[in-house]
Specification:
The structure is a homodimer of 388-residue chains.
Chain A: E1 5-15, H1 23-26, E2 33-37, H2 42-45, H3 48-58, E3 62-66, H4 75-87, E4 92-97, H5 99-109, H6 118-124, E5 136-140, E6 152-157, E7 162-167, E8 176-179, H7 189-207, H8 215-236, H9 241-254, H10 268-280, H11 284-299, H12 304-314, H13 324-342, H14 358-363, H15 377-387
Parallel strand pairs in A: 1-8, 2-3, 2-4, 4-5, 5-8
Antiparallel strand pairs in A: 6-7
Chain lengths: 388, 388
């Protein structure tokens, strides 16, 4: 733990099988106009929409509808949300859904009182908000992104084939998030496992960097082990409350800044996956899964000690009598077996990527420098080809 | 993860080898009168006192001295601190020291605007604050209690041989805490290892309870492993920044509510240790160390599966070909070896306890019900005798 940092996370979490009732405790803190943000309407089928609107009405709120947030929220949708918030003098942005809804709410929150074009300001120029930020609340129906307790927002621009994330500071984090593992029960299995891999990879991205010994990496290993363990139960029985609750809580802590404290981080799998997503609009977690092993196998020699530790600590590989390379490769092989077992998509061609897109995807891949090997364009192309 | 919970921790942490400068960022948020709380004066020898006062003066604050907070803060001292705060219309309680100073500051914070007797209200009747709570800031010079990011306060009453803790809610947690691992370098080795065991036992108290599979227990194992690893480095080289920083950060997370979320907890080692402390005024961490193994060996059969997991996951015991009891006992034996190696006091007679005190200590031991075996008085006496 050599790095310097500050830590502050004020998001209040309500976590239980009946947590929606706590919305009644939060609503009185905010003004009358609530922008209700949700996606394709699954919350109307499972009753969550009615329950939320009922609580909003009982608390005397004006409900301003903002439906149709897509899995990868677009610039156009962001601009629409900003317009809704401005026209209705919104006091609270209430996202009901998964990470996309929550990300989108945060992107709207920093843009409503801002004259600049949000895409240019936050996702091209990476500026920080200088205007009044609207408060965001989140009712989570899918575990994965950790957006419920962080300041991150990822927005896609299909016109330019870009999918870009901005991690805002503590002031943009949701004021409160309501987590009910039961709300995730009805999620299609493919969405569940994509979320599980998103969680797992968030941890990997923060773990596979640096060589110092620090508490953050121990915590990362703990979260990985809990996710692996519970994922195997959840794919067999999606209504296992204990497994789904562990996955949900691990997702929150996998990306609420804690396990990156005092250390460097990688995030190249996300850069590769997001570039694939910008071309294919594929499910985020699946894009990460499809590029992960080619990437990790390529960088493994540059971070061998950490990959060996990953193998022994996370995957219980017995190191006795084996070379470090053998141990590290056994770890990745065991990870691959787990990924296939839970049903992840293991290559980008199944997600709609084709050989002729590779150059374009490589061009849209941000190159970050925190990992064990700073990739050049040729290396990115080779990794993408190996992911096809 | 079956339990229901809420989570909110607003304490802002500044963590680095030069973190004191961030006091300048916090002071403008509070009024003019700052009660400067510290202990026996070691901060005057190592320069921290002068540096803090300098920053306070530069920020235009009135410094109100409140020195002499003892390792186990007493009721009399608490009443004195409340009087100082009232007479000087204090706006901020700034604790500079270890857990004792920070605990004491929180106990003052909830009492200044309260008409009731604080000892009776908070430590006998366990009531919650109903008056305005003063804000607390903390500059930490010793890792151990986690008081810098929680709502706990332990106060001793020598007249009645009682040492009692009250865990207050989020509103009593420090508003900010400044952590600099270098501030812990000059601590005598005995204080350092007592702090290390305090941290370790905080984790044990939350880990050794319940049989469900939950993320919290994985995180607890991670923190234990990090503490064990770094403790062995720190006892050899107390100025190893990496080891001291890992210990400091693990201490914060060992007791800031996270690893107890969604699960039951034990806390009987603290009940036994605090009763010993009430009789002997011995160093807190050492009282915990001295009663731990007799307690854990006694309750082990009642929580065998967890003690086996503790052995394999935390102490890397190879379970192959061994009974569960053997594995669990090997874990405790390895823990005992580690405790002796870092220099902990392994029995209460070395802390000043005598055979004739046993009955009295047993009478002052709160019996809690969250562990694997609810102890009766005879069992407590047997454990204390085995600890002599």
């Amino acid at each position: 733990m050599l790095g310097n940092f500050s830590y502050c996370n004020e998001t209040k979490i309500y976590f239980c099988d009946d947590s929606l009732k706590y919305l009644n405790d939060e609503l009185p803190k905010y003004g009358k106009n609530v922008q209700l943000i949700y996606g394709g309407g699954s919350i109307k089928k499972n009753g969550i929409y009615d329950a939320v609107v009922d609580i909003l009405k009982k608390n005397g709120k004006n409900v301003i509808e903002d439906a149709g947030v897509m899995p990868n929220p677009t610039v156009e949708k962001l601009n629409e949300g900003v317009k809704i918030a401005r026209e209705n003098k919104v006091d609270l942005l209430l996202a009901v859904g998964g990470g996309s809804c929550c990300d989108y709410a945060k992107a709207v929150a920093v843009s409503v009182n801002c004259d600049d074009d949000p895409w240019q300001k936050y996702f091209i120029r990476f500026e920080e908000p200088t205007c009044k930020i609207l408060p965001v609340g989140c009712i989570l129906t899918m575990a994965g992104t950790g957006s419920e307790m962080n300041g991150g927002a990822v927005i896609s621009n299909h016109a330019t084939n870009q999918k870009i994330g901005h991690v805002f500071g503590a002031e943009v984090m949701p004021k409160f998030s309501i987590l009910n593992p039961k709300f995730t029960f009805s999620l299609p299995k493919r969405q569940m496992v994509a979320g599980i891999y998103d969680i797992f990879n968030h941890i990997c991205e923060q773990y596979f960097s640096g060589t110092d010994d620090n508490t953050s990496d121990y915590l990362a290993e703990a979260l990985m082990k809990s996710v692996i363990h519970s994922s195997l139960i959840a794919v067999e029985n999606p209504e296992d409350y204990e497994a789904r609750s562990n996955i949900m809580w691990s997702a929150t802590w996998a990306l609420n800044t804690l396990i990156a404290k005092g250390k460097t981080t990688d995030w190249m799998v996300h850069m590769l996956g997001q570039a694939v997503g910008a071309y294919t609009d594929a499910t985020h977690g699946m894009t990460l899964a499809a590029v992960s092993l080619p990437y990790y196998r390529y960088i493994m020699p540059y971070g061998l000690a950490k990959f060996k530790r990953f193998a022994t600590e996370v995957w219980s590989i017995d190191a006795k009598g084996k070379s470090d390379e053998q141990v590290a490769e056994e770890g990745l092989q065991t990870m691959e077996n787990w990924m296939k077992k839970i049903g992840l998509t293991m290559n980008i061609s199944e997600l709609g990527a084709t050989a002729d897109m590779i150059e374009g995807i490589a061009d849209k891949t941000f190159i970050l420098t925190g990992g064990y090997k700073v990739l050049n364009r040729d290396e990115i192309i080779n990794i993408l080809k190996a992911s096809l």
